[in-house]
Amino acid sequence: PGVLWNIKSRYIFDDIYTYTGSTLIAANPFAPLPHLYGPHMMDQYRGVDLGDLSPHVYAIADAAYRQMRKELKGQSILVSGESGAGKTETSKLIMKYLAYMGGYMDAASRRG
Q1: Which of 60, 95, 101, 109 is the most buried (most CB within 10 A)?
Q2: How far apart are CA 61 and CA 68, in angstroms?
């Protein structure tokens, strides 16, 4: 019940993400929350260790991206939930973050 209390407490304030260990739980707000997404948030989570900032899908994507670059091996992110839970939208956010990071790293290597 502690996890459920935490999810509910955060959800009231549009904090739709909660960690339980290294697992991210997302509660679908069924409403747009543009302040949670976009380049300004991607920059915030880039290179930051999991758990150092508020729970976010970008934190999970960044952790997988950095592990992939470190180990030179593919990584997996499991997105699970009921119908209408937001799996497709979450997957899109992960792919946008990974594309952003790929473009960021590509631009850095051209400058470097």
Answers
A1: 60
A2: 11
